[in-house]
Protein backbone atom coordinates (compact mmCIF):
# COMPACT_ATOMS: atom_id res chain seq x y z
CA UNK A 1 0.00 0.00 0.00
CA UNK A 2 1.22 3.51 -0.72
CA UNK A 3 -0.07 7.00 -0.11
CA UNK A 4 -1.26 8.97 -3.14
CA UNK A 5 -0.06 12.57 -3.35
CA UNK A 6 -2.99 14.94 -3.53
CA UNK A 7 -3.11 16.91 -6.82
CA UNK A 8 -2.48 20.62 -6.42
CA UNK A 9 -4.42 23.59 -7.80
CA UNK A 10 -3.12 24.89 -11.12
CA UNK A 11 -2.46 28.53 -12.00
CA UNK A 12 -0.78 29.83 -15.15
CA UNK A 13 -0.90 33.66 -15.16
CA UNK A 14 -0.08 35.95 -18.05
CA UNK A 15 2.30 38.90 -18.07
CA UNK A 16 -0.31 41.55 -18.85
CA UNK A 17 -3.62 40.64 -17.15
CA UNK A 18 -5.51 43.70 -18.39
CA UNK A 19 -4.95 42.56 -21.98
CA UNK A 20 -5.56 38.87 -21.27
CA UNK A 21 -8.43 36.42 -21.20
CA UNK A 22 -8.39 34.28 -18.02
CA UNK A 23 -10.11 30.91 -17.83
CA UNK A 24 -11.35 29.40 -14.57
CA UNK A 25 -11.52 25.61 -15.02
CA UNK A 26 -13.68 23.68 -12.55
CA UNK A 27 -13.41 19.90 -12.20
CA UNK A 28 -16.27 17.55 -11.45
CA UNK A 29 -17.51 15.55 -8.48
CA UNK A 30 -14.75 13.13 -7.28
CA UNK A 31 -12.40 14.72 -9.83
CA UNK A 32 -9.30 16.91 -9.57
CA UNK A 33 -7.57 19.57 -11.71
CA UNK A 34 -5.59 16.71 -13.29
CA UNK A 35 -8.74 15.78 -15.24
CA UNK A 36 -8.42 19.13 -17.02
CA UNK A 37 -4.64 19.26 -17.38
CA UNK A 38 -4.51 18.56 -21.15
CA UNK A 39 -7.13 21.23 -21.79
CA UNK A 40 -5.28 23.65 -19.52
CA UNK A 41 -2.04 23.08 -21.45
CA UNK A 42 -3.87 23.58 -24.75
CA UNK A 43 -5.37 26.89 -23.60
CA UNK A 44 -2.19 28.13 -21.92
CA UNK A 45 -0.26 27.56 -25.16
CA UNK A 46 -2.79 29.79 -26.93
CA UNK A 47 -2.23 32.72 -24.57
CA UNK A 48 -5.02 32.22 -22.05
CA UNK A 49 -4.37 32.54 -18.32
CA UNK A 50 -5.63 29.39 -16.58
CA UNK A 51 -6.68 28.69 -13.00
CA UNK A 52 -8.02 25.34 -11.72
CA UNK A 53 -8.75 24.95 -8.00
CA UNK A 54 -9.30 21.68 -6.15
CA UNK A 55 -12.35 21.38 -3.91
CA UNK A 56 -12.25 20.45 -0.23
CA UNK A 57 -11.96 16.69 0.28
CA UNK A 58 -11.17 15.90 -3.35
CA UNK A 59 -8.04 14.05 -4.40
CA UNK A 60 -7.89 12.39 -0.97
CA UNK A 61 -10.23 9.41 -1.31
CA UNK A 62 -13.99 9.01 -1.05
CA UNK A 63 -14.12 9.26 2.75
CA UNK A 64 -12.74 12.81 2.61
CA UNK A 65 -15.40 13.77 0.06
CA UNK A 66 -18.22 12.42 2.24
CA UNK A 67 -16.89 14.35 5.23
CA UNK A 68 -16.80 17.56 3.19
CA UNK A 69 -19.79 19.53 1.87
CA UNK A 70 -21.29 21.14 -1.21
CA UNK A 71 -21.10 24.53 0.54
CA UNK A 72 -17.33 24.17 0.87
CA UNK A 73 -16.93 23.15 -2.78
CA UNK A 74 -19.05 26.06 -3.91
CA UNK A 75 -16.98 28.42 -1.79
CA UNK A 76 -13.81 26.99 -3.38
CA UNK A 77 -15.22 27.90 -6.80
CA UNK A 78 -16.19 31.40 -5.63
CA UNK A 79 -12.77 31.95 -4.06
CA UNK A 80 -11.03 30.89 -7.28
CA UNK A 81 -13.11 33.32 -9.35
CA UNK A 82 -12.42 36.16 -6.92
CA UNK A 83 -8.72 35.24 -7.00
CA UNK A 84 -8.73 35.75 -10.78
CA UNK A 85 -10.71 38.97 -10.42
CA UNK A 86 -8.02 40.30 -8.07
CA UNK A 87 -5.55 40.17 -11.01
CA UNK A 88 -7.91 42.43 -13.00
CA UNK A 89 -7.94 40.31 -16.13
CA UNK A 90 -9.63 41.97 -19.06
CA UNK A 91 -11.89 38.95 -19.59
CA UNK A 92 -12.80 36.01 -17.34
CA UNK A 93 -14.57 32.90 -18.63
CA UNK A 94 -15.37 29.64 -16.89
CA UNK A 95 -15.07 26.10 -18.24
CA UNK A 96 -16.65 23.47 -16.00
CA UNK A 97 -16.82 19.69 -16.27
CA UNK A 98 -19.89 17.91 -14.86
CA UNK A 99 -20.47 19.33 -11.35
CA UNK A 100 -17.93 22.02 -12.23
CA UNK A 101 -20.27 23.09 -15.02
CA UNK A 102 -23.10 23.43 -12.50
CA UNK A 103 -20.87 25.70 -10.42
CA UNK A 104 -19.97 27.64 -13.59
CA UNK A 105 -23.65 28.22 -14.36
CA UNK A 106 -24.35 29.30 -10.77
CA UNK A 107 -21.42 31.73 -10.92
CA UNK A 108 -22.79 33.15 -14.19
CA UNK A 109 -26.06 33.81 -12.36
CA UNK A 110 -24.26 35.85 -9.72
CA UNK A 111 -21.23 37.45 -11.40
CA UNK A 112 -20.49 39.30 -14.64
CA UNK A 113 -18.54 36.83 -16.78
CA UNK A 114 -17.26 36.86 -20.34
CA UNK A 115 -18.64 33.37 -21.06
CA UNK A 116 -19.37 29.92 -19.67
CA UNK A 117 -18.61 26.51 -21.18
CA UNK A 118 -20.12 23.34 -19.70
CA UNK A 119 -18.84 19.85 -20.45
CA UNK A 120 -21.23 16.97 -19.69
CA UNK A 121 -22.95 18.84 -16.88
CA UNK A 122 -26.14 17.72 -15.09
CA UNK A 123 -28.80 20.31 -14.41
CA UNK A 124 -31.71 18.25 -13.05
CA UNK A 125 -32.20 16.86 -9.56
CA UNK A 126 -30.21 13.62 -9.39
CA UNK A 127 -31.32 10.42 -7.66
CA UNK A 128 -29.17 10.20 -4.53
CA UNK A 129 -28.88 6.42 -4.94
CA UNK A 130 -27.11 6.95 -8.27
CA UNK A 131 -24.70 9.43 -6.74
CA UNK A 132 -24.01 7.07 -3.84
CA UNK A 133 -23.24 4.17 -6.19
CA UNK A 134 -20.87 6.40 -8.11
CA UNK A 135 -19.11 7.44 -4.91
CA UNK A 136 -18.77 3.83 -3.72
CA UNK A 137 -17.33 2.86 -7.11
CA UNK A 138 -14.85 5.75 -6.84
CA UNK A 139 -13.92 4.59 -3.32
CA UNK A 140 -13.17 1.10 -4.62
CA UNK A 141 -11.02 2.34 -7.51
CA UNK A 142 -9.09 4.73 -5.25
CA UNK A 143 -8.33 1.94 -2.78
CA UNK A 144 -7.14 -0.31 -5.62
CA UNK A 145 -4.87 2.50 -6.77
CA UNK A 146 -3.51 2.67 -3.22
CA UNK A 147 -2.63 -1.04 -3.70
CA UNK A 148 -4.64 -2.22 -0.73
CA UNK A 149 -5.44 -5.92 -0.48
CA UNK A 150 -8.79 -7.27 -1.69
CA UNK A 151 -9.68 -8.18 1.90
CA UNK A 152 -8.83 -4.69 3.17
CA UNK A 153 -10.82 -3.06 0.35
CA UNK A 154 -13.85 -5.22 1.11
CA UNK A 155 -13.71 -4.30 4.80
CA UNK A 156 -13.24 -0.60 4.17
CA UNK A 157 -16.04 -0.46 1.57
CA UNK A 158 -18.43 -2.10 4.03
CA UNK A 159 -17.55 0.58 6.58
CA UNK A 160 -17.77 3.30 3.95
CA UNK A 161 -21.29 2.25 2.94
CA UNK A 162 -22.46 2.96 6.51
CA UNK A 163 -21.41 6.62 6.44
CA UNK A 164 -23.81 9.55 6.30
CA UNK A 165 -24.35 10.41 2.62
CA UNK A 166 -26.72 13.33 3.25
CA UNK A 167 -24.30 15.67 1.47
CA UNK A 168 -25.36 13.98 -1.78
CA UNK A 169 -28.90 15.24 -1.28
CA UNK A 170 -27.46 18.74 -0.87
CA UNK A 171 -25.56 18.34 -4.14
CA UNK A 172 -28.73 17.22 -5.91
CA UNK A 173 -30.64 20.23 -4.54
CA UNK A 174 -27.84 22.61 -5.54
CA UNK A 175 -28.02 21.29 -9.09
CA UNK A 176 -31.80 21.54 -9.24
CA UNK A 177 -31.86 25.14 -7.94
CA UNK A 178 -29.16 26.17 -10.42
CA UNK A 179 -31.30 24.74 -13.20
CA UNK A 180 -34.29 26.80 -12.09
CA UNK A 181 -32.36 30.04 -12.66
CA UNK A 182 -30.86 29.37 -16.09
CA UNK A 183 -32.92 32.18 -17.71
CA UNK A 184 -31.00 34.73 -15.59
CA UNK A 185 -27.71 33.92 -17.36
CA UNK A 186 -26.79 36.69 -19.79
CA UNK A 187 -23.21 35.89 -20.84
CA UNK A 188 -22.47 33.67 -23.88
CA UNK A 189 -22.89 29.96 -23.12
CA UNK A 190 -21.28 26.96 -24.83
CA UNK A 191 -22.68 23.50 -24.08
CA UNK A 192 -20.52 20.48 -24.98
CA UNK A 193 -21.73 16.90 -24.57
CA UNK A 194 -20.44 13.41 -25.31
CA UNK A 195 -23.09 11.31 -27.05
CA UNK A 196 -21.96 8.14 -25.24
CA UNK A 197 -22.68 9.71 -21.84
CA UNK A 198 -25.66 8.71 -19.65
CA UNK A 199 -29.11 9.90 -20.70
CA UNK A 200 -29.43 12.36 -17.80
CA UNK A 201 -26.44 14.33 -19.11
CA UNK A 202 -27.73 14.31 -22.69
CA UNK A 203 -31.06 15.67 -21.47
CA UNK A 204 -29.34 18.27 -19.28
CA UNK A 205 -27.25 19.58 -22.19
CA UNK A 206 -30.42 20.37 -24.14
CA UNK A 207 -32.05 21.99 -21.10
CA UNK A 208 -29.03 24.22 -20.46
CA UNK A 209 -28.93 25.32 -24.09
CA UNK A 210 -32.68 25.88 -24.37
CA UNK A 211 -33.20 27.69 -21.05
CA UNK A 212 -30.04 29.81 -20.64
CA UNK A 213 -31.06 33.44 -21.09
CA UNK A 214 -27.98 34.20 -23.20
CA UNK A 215 -28.43 35.71 -26.65
CA UNK A 216 -25.18 34.04 -27.76
CA UNK A 217 -25.06 30.28 -27.16
CA UNK A 218 -24.09 27.08 -28.90
CA UNK A 219 -24.39 23.36 -28.31
CA UNK A 220 -22.16 20.63 -29.73
CA UNK A 221 -22.27 16.86 -29.39
CA UNK A 222 -19.35 14.48 -29.86
CA UNK A 223 -20.25 11.02 -31.19
CA UNK A 224 -17.20 9.09 -29.99
CA UNK A 225 -16.99 10.33 -26.39
CA UNK A 226 -18.73 9.80 -23.07
CA UNK A 227 -18.62 11.65 -19.77
CA UNK A 228 -14.87 12.40 -19.62
CA UNK A 229 -15.12 14.50 -22.75
CA UNK A 230 -11.78 16.25 -22.30
CA UNK A 231 -9.91 12.91 -22.16
CA UNK A 232 -11.67 10.74 -24.74
CA UNK A 233 -11.59 10.17 -28.50
CA UNK A 234 -12.90 13.60 -29.50
CA UNK A 235 -10.81 15.60 -27.04
CA UNK A 236 -8.70 17.45 -29.63
CA UNK A 237 -11.82 18.68 -31.40
CA UNK A 238 -13.34 19.59 -28.03
CA UNK A 239 -10.24 21.66 -27.21
CA UNK A 240 -10.35 23.44 -30.58
CA UNK A 241 -14.05 24.18 -30.15
CA UNK A 242 -13.51 25.65 -26.67
CA UNK A 243 -10.58 27.80 -27.81
CA UNK A 244 -12.53 28.95 -30.86
CA UNK A 245 -15.53 29.93 -28.75
CA UNK A 246 -13.35 31.81 -26.26
CA UNK A 247 -11.55 33.65 -29.05
CA UNK A 248 -14.85 34.68 -30.68
CA UNK A 249 -16.22 36.64 -27.71
TrEMBL record:
Keywords: Hydrolase. InterPro entries: AB_hydrolase_fold (IPR029058), Esterase_lipase (IPR012354), Hydrolase_4 (IPR022742), MAG_DAG_Lipase (IPR051044). The keyword Hydrolase applies. The active site is at 98 (nucleophile), 197 (charge relay system), 227 (charge relay system). Pfam families: Hydrolase_4. The keyword Ribonucleoprotein does not apply. Residues 21-234 form the Serine aminopeptidase S33 domain. One of its GO terms (molecular function) is carboxylic ester hydrolase activity. Substrate binds at residues 29, 99. PANTHER family: PHOSPHOLIPASE-RELATED. This is Alpha/beta fold hydrolase. It comes from Alkanindiges illinoisensis.
